[in-house]
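Attaching the record inline, Q. Sequence:
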Amino acid sequence: MQVQQVDGREKAEGDRPSRGKETRQKGVTPMSMTRITKHPILEIPEKKEVAFTWNGLTLTGYEGEMISSALIANGIHIFGHHAKDGSAQGIFCANGQCSQCLVIADGLPEKSCMTPLREGMVVESLEGLPKLPEDDRAPLLREPPARDVEVLIIGGGPAGLSAAVELGKLGVDTLIVDDKQRLGGKLLLQTHKFFGSVEDSHAGTRGFEIARMLEEEVRVQSSVEVWLNTTAVGVFSDGIVGVVKGRTYRKVRPQKLLVAAGAREKMLSFPGNTLPGVYGAGAFQTLVNRDLVKSSERVLIVGGGNVGLIAGYHAIQAGIQVVALVEALPYVGGYKVHEDKLKRLGVPIYTSHTVVSASGKERVESVTIGKLDEHWKVIPDTHKTFQVDTVLIAVGLAEVNEFFHKAKEWAMDVYSAGDAREIAEASAAMFTGKMEGLKIAKALGLYRGEIPATWAEKEAVLKSKPGPVVPREKPKEEEGVMPIFHCFQEVPCNPCTSVCPEGAIKTERDEITGLPYMVDVSLCKGCMNCVFICPGLAVTLVDYRKDKEYPLITLAYEVWREKVEKGQKVPVTDEDGAILGYYPVEKVVTSKKKYPGTLLVQVRVEKDVAKRASGIWVQEKQIEPSLVYERELPPDEAIVCRCERVTAGEIRAAIREGVRDMNQLKALWRAGMGACGAKTCRPMIWRIFKEEGVDLGDVADRIDRPLFVEVPLGILAGMRSKED
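Structure, as predicted:
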């Protein structure tokens, strides 16, 4: 097939013109350049290539992957343009929560992030208003199939799966519905090792491996049924939960309902915040860790909680450069060991900074940040502009709890677990799931025991915030072999105590949050288990046995393997990322069966460096701000309601005119009337009310309708084709 350039877009001979406004694509990128073909942690599976068309252009993707991932793998980031203002539309949440990525697939409107690719699929951009299908045939209708069940669980993440395991052990008739192709929720996106304890929360095991373990536990429970690719769409007054399985609407009538639907990401209001390339961190992790698509070259991360810090680490593992991480607080709010991992890899972290604007014609080309004063205002002349193609927003999560509240309103017997109940770590979600599972079984009369009191105690500990950063003295001994712990903050984590065969490692006060220490350094035999398992990569083994002046140090390493081959000189850093020197690699140790994905890099250093050595610098070339930022864009230009393109200025003007009702804002500006159902704009509007000095108690909230996810009318009506 010959290809020619048409209006800046590659077009195959025989293509018909695309419908509506030109999509303005500048051509496609070969998949070999945008697919992640090697990864330090993840295995690269073999997948079947299929052909599909995008606006008439023939492309290839992998069978069963989401359409959005296939498009981005072909270098296509713009999926259409908004009917109101012609703004470019692309992926945003990658989780089915918004409709930013809507396309027409085989003649039907579909969320591209939730629709699997098939051979020969015809995919088109949604430009303007779609035409109704030219089909006069009378549809075939059917009554939606119904299912009675003792327990319905919405969500197959760590909380839902843990609850299902407990219910399955007791033989409770349980149905799990999840809108993805695989069980595990956000665990599937996590390549890092988890904190907590080995016994209770699989500490030292990677998130995607924990997902597999929980799924295996669920699958052996004969009373538990799993419906994948099934979206819960509404809870109704007659006790029915409506779900869409495939393209069939079904009614589920549970005796007990457990909502474990997880969380959605919060968004920030700044000019350019809806440009393609501004993602939630979860969307980015979905692309790089689940779908193995290298969606970016350079990213800037906004938000210094664990989500943002971990996303930065995942980006580097995927071969993507992290130019900076910015945090509005004067300190990083996530675990210090996560912060230190990024610093040691060469990522600059700007505290007391925020994003001012993102700029670009139709996708992100640059981002500007500014320093904040004590009143949270950007200080003039502190702007820095970075050339990037992606901005990751990681400023917190909001509970997906609308199903729970509506079920409560209808007086259903409903429970919640995990992030749908309270935002916390996945290890805590597993405990809430286990406890809610037993509570439900008890309410059904199928469990007569007591819920272990230790479960609630452990859940509380796993939810605890990180403690203050405290200085620690290094051991004075300079003989034998010993681990040096670079932990300076109490967090719930103690796997190093579980794997030491000599029992030589303890935590302060014998608590899971206590800092680790050696009972007696002479007990250490140098097995390296503690270095392998540490989730924070915060243990260095120092070995003086062969050379006291130049001891051998062992560092955990999980990124670009070609950087640490034997004989190469590597930049060794301290805890804060300062380079201590360049040293040749003497040996690389692996333990693929017990600790897959973790390399131990051994180098010989001066003795005054050994105890300070903490990591290996990767991003040797810092990306400096490259533009002079001359003016601050009006913050009122920021889009608040991305579905209806309502700006912060329009919302602010209505508030100043006396509007105190979210429903009135909807009537005036259509804010919250879009396909996402106000999932993104609602918290941003609340924030504007607060910024305007309005007491939030005086503001009437919007009225939520029973249907929380948009569904084609034909599916609700039970429409089917003759092929069905």
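The chain has five domains: 3-127, 146-264+399-463, 267-395, 481-616, 635-698. The chain is about 20% helix and 25% strand.

More tomorrow.
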